[in-house]
Amino acid sequence: MIKKLLAYVKEYRASSIMTPVMMIGEVLCEMIIPVLMGRIVDQGVYGGDMTYIVHTGLIMVVVAVIGLGFGIGGGVFGAKASAGFAKNLRKAEYDQIQTFSFANIDRFSPSSLVTRLTTDITNIQNAYMMSLRMAIRAPMSMIIAMIMSFLIDARLASVYLVAVIFLGIVLFFVMNTAGKYFQKVFDKYDELNESVQENVSAIRVVKAYVREDHEISKFTKAAANIYLMFVSAEKKIVGIMPLMQGVVYACILLISWFGAHFIIDETLTTGSLMSLLTYCMNILMSLMMLAMVFVMITMSNASAKRILEVIDARSTLTNPENPVMEVPDGSVDFEHVDFAYDEKAKEPVLKDICLHIDSGESLGIIGSTGSAKTSLVHLIDRLYDVTSGTVKVGGIDVRKYDLDVLRRRVSMVLQKNVLFSGTIYDNLRWGDKNATDEACREACRIACADEFINRFPDGYNTWIEQGGSNVSGGQKQRLCIARAILRKPKILILDDSTSAVDTATDAKIRKAFAEEIPDTTKIIIAQRISSVQHCDRILVMDDGRVNGEGTHEELLKNNRIYREVYESQTGVNAEADFDQKN
After folding, report:
1. Phi/psi at 491 (5° precision)
2. Is the pLDDT of residue 575 over 60?
């Protein structure tokens, strides 16, 4: 795991190396000062040598300044290395998410991905910073302080050695126990982010149904779970600092007691005792820093596993070795296709689908909720792969195409319309980033979006808020249709994309399709029969199977489901509906 993570240090290796070098320099300077201070006491103060005091004092100042320089350098290099490492890691994770298929996205919830890109990355960044600085500085300081203590007086230094070994064992067991709690904490973060994301995105619904109290209660519960998990982890850690302080202060008392006797016996000087006590405080600080490093590394270990889960996840959809780079035409073939979202599912969502769609044909698809209409069209541009059978576009298996090429030629307006913050022009150019203003306006004319755009004061430069919150549902749908048309696709799929559009505008869009893009294969999923009845052919889906196909007139005569729905929508039989067909 560590090897995988360090691969993302890349261009910040020099800073990563310089940081511990600077820390070592700082520690060496700090360790020299107690020795010089002891000499000032023994030779300067007791010897009455003012010149020696001034001379040694100046050396101490120079050493302190050099140490300060090393400390500043370590901070600068450490910040650059850790921030750069986090940047590379975040980019790698984000880039990997962009390669995910719908199946991969189903595995990781959006809230979990947000946590992994923010909180988890920040934990790794902080841990790396502390590892470069404190994880080098603290043990180095402790080791050098211990060596200097033994050089001054091995008898008193033995007290330090026993204390360090004891505290090291305690620290190991406590951190090992606390690590299990931190892993659970980040799962709770996912739940908290999910609550926030859901509330913010659906805030209008929350207010419309006066559910603020319910949402506050749900958020409070999620926040309380994180609080409880952190408290549980902190309870395991909280005793470390007092224990360390108690042990080190006990060391100070023992050294002071024995040191006083050694001074009386003239086997130890006062300056040496002062140096030993200074080194004792260095050891205390080093132990505290090590405890902080262990806490951060324990937390980051859980974060690292979650980040690598995303980075190591491989898309369920991959390009072939020698992909086809051109789609010949807009014909579509389903050959005995079965499909299931989960390989372990007992029953597939689509069952033995056999279907041929001519290039340039308009095909309507209707069916009850859950009849797998959307699942069917998602296989055409390979948002999912079939479980068995074959889907062909232009007579070629979709799995042989380059994914980008296929999806540029199969343009889909999804069931959930999404617009991004930016101008109308910006949103339209998601379809073709190089599209001219004239091409954008032409696409909007075909999608009947120009009618409302021209009424905006800023026209096509009107700013769209995130998610398209400042336009109506029907306007959003028409902009999404225009965006899809702008790609000049060979196959255009509308997944219930005119549901918020009035019937008159719906008819205008269908007419424009027939006149302006006659060679484009048009697949229209709809609940209203009026949206599909003029198609060349209509498909009736029922429980993952093709229940019937034909023209509007043929289905009225031969298909009971289609006839009942038509009667319900025209007022002949008000009881019938897609979901009440039996």
Report:
1. -135, 125
2. no
Work out the burial of residue 443: count CB atoms within 10 Å of its CB; fewer than 13 is exposed, 13-18 middle, 19 or more buried: buried
The whole-angstrom distance between residue 315's C-alpha and the CA centroid of its chain comes to 16
Q: CA 100, 104, 105: angle at the middle one, nearest 5?
A: 85
Q: Specify whether the CB–CB gap between 281 and 141 falls below 8 A.
A: no
How distant is the alpha carbon of residue 30 from its chain centre? 42
Mean pLDDT, residues 523-544 taken together = 90
Rg (CA), the chain: 35
411: helix, strand or coil: strand
75 vs 132: CA distance, rounded Å: 10
| pTM value > 0.70 | no
316 φ, ψ (degrees, to nearest 5): -70, -10
**Dist CA 114 CA 122 (whole Å):** 12
Mean per-residue pLDDT over the chain, rounded: 84
Query: Contact at 8 Å (CB) between 43 and 272?
Result: no
3-state secondary structure of 282: helix
| Cα separation values, 92 from 53, 85, 104, 415, Å | 57, 11, 16, 30
How far apart (Å, rounded) are the C-alpha atoms in residues 223 and 6? 33
Nearest C-alpha neighbor of 367 from the set 161, 581, 212: 581
The tens digit of pLDDT for each residue in 234-268 reads 776 666 667 777 777 787 788 888 888 888 877 87
Which of 407, 355, 284, 341 has the alpha carbon at shortest distance from 550? Answer: 355
Are the C-beta atoms of residues 148 and 31 closer than 8 Å to each other?
yes
The 10 Å Cβ neighbour count of residue 105 is: 14
Question: If you average pLDDT over residues 72-96, what whole number do you get?
Answer: 91
Count of other CB atoms within 10 angstroms of residue 397: 16
